[in-house]
Design a protein that fits this description.
Porin; 64% strand; 11% helix; mainly beta; 12-stranded antiparallel sheet
Length: 213
């Protein structure tokens, strides 16, 4: 009897939640997003001309950070928005030499294809693309001073968005993210400048929530 009663309560809650949730099939207003962003696996490629020992590939350690976005539906199956992300990253070699973690700031435009499988469940595919500003964890690299880095980011994320109430819900994303940027190295001894090019790709998992005003 208790098991049947518990099952009845779960079914009743699911039905009532679906009835009270926002209708994602006919959504007209935009929504804000906050999410935890994680990157796993992958490699970083570093190239620096005329700096012996600085070139090569290295395995990435876990990347983590926060993302904030706004998405606005333009069509039943298409939305467009923007995203701001702060990400902390490092590699195995940098961690072994006790180098500080570096921080990337992403400013991206986010086109999104979407499909509501139910009125409160939406599947989507996002393609964030934009600028990346990197702040290297160390002030110097093999005796050269490191300036701020500028480049781009590109990702493909598959996600699901669930409406819990009429104005908020949860979401999860899985995909692949790529970053590439360049730092300027100033060598005090020779007064020369060298480009330090860094590129990296990782599998990404994002978990968070959304709300509409």
């Amino acid at each position: 009897m208790r098991a049947r009663f518990a099952l009845f309560l779960i079914c009743a809650f699911a039905v009532s939640s679906s009835a009270l949730a926002q209708d994602l099939e006919n959504e007209n207003d935009g929504h804000f997003i906050g999410k935890l962003m994680l990157g796993f696996g992958g490699e970083a490629e570093i190239e620096a001309d005329d700096l012996g020992g600085a070139d090569g590939q290295d395995d990435m350690e876990m990347t983590y950070g926060l993302g904030f976005a706004y998405m606005h539906p333009l069509h039943e199956h298409f939305a467009l928005g923007g995203q701001l992300a702060f990400l902390s990253w490092t590699t195995e070699f940098l961690e072994d030499i006790d180098a500080d973690r570096s921080v990337m700031l992403d400013l991206s435009v986010v086109p999104q294809g979407k499909y509501a499988v139910r009125n409160n469940i939406e599947l989507y595919a996002s393609l964030p693309l934009g600028l990346t500003f990197d702040f290297f964890g160390e002030d110097d690299w093999f005796g050269a001073e490191v300036g701020g880095g500028v480049g781009f980011n590109l990702a493909l994320m598959l996600g699901v968005r669930v409406a819990i109430d009429d104005s908020w819900g949860l979401l999860g994303e899985l995909g692949y993210a790529y970053h590439a940027f360049s730092h300027t190295l100033e060598v005090p001894v020779t007064s020369t400048e060298i480009d330090l090019d860094i590129s990296m790709g990782q599998f990404g998992i994002n978990l968070g929530g959304w709300f509409s005003l």
